[in-house]
Amino acid sequence: xxxxxxxxxxxGGATNWPAPSFNPETGLFYVNAARAxxxxxxxDADDKPEGWGGNDRSGSSEAMVQAIDYKTGKIRWTxxxxxxxxxxxxxxxxxxxxxxxxxxxxSNFVALDPxxxxxxxxxxxxxxxxNGPITYELDGVQYVVVGAGDTLYGFAMRVK
Length: 160
Hints:
- The chain has a single domain (4-157), classed as Lipocalin.
- The chain is built from no helices and 14 strands.
- It has strands at 4-7, 21-23, 28-41, 44-45, 48-49, 55-69, 75-80, 93-95, 99-103, 108-112, 119-124, 134-138, 141-148, 151-157.
- Strand 10 (108-112) and strand 11 (119-124) form a beta hairpin.
- The model has no long low-confidence stretch (mean pLDDT 84).
């Protein structure tokens, strides 16, 4: 007899290796996360259960960036990515210039408002962001660099 159990988060976890970011100005800790459900089955073949405790049969999922108040642990805002949860969960970068950068599952590099999660800007990179973005200043200009696929993309930011 086969009996399944609905589990959340699924084997991919709620959040995993992509770098989170903390912004001392907002007091928020940012993570790329997934809300996902799967049904796990335990097969009893020759009295040896399969795998680490069963077999994962994917269910529904949604991908998002969440801002967590580090003092209370409460989620202050959630920005859900369009689509059905799959795709990239890049590292995040928050800046003193009031921007939060992330890669979305649609191969865009996105700037969000770190206080609200509202999208401010995006650039289509045509492949998923594969790392956490970095920033640096050179000759009075601030740059943001991000890797997507086998390419590095650099953006110059104007400071107002």
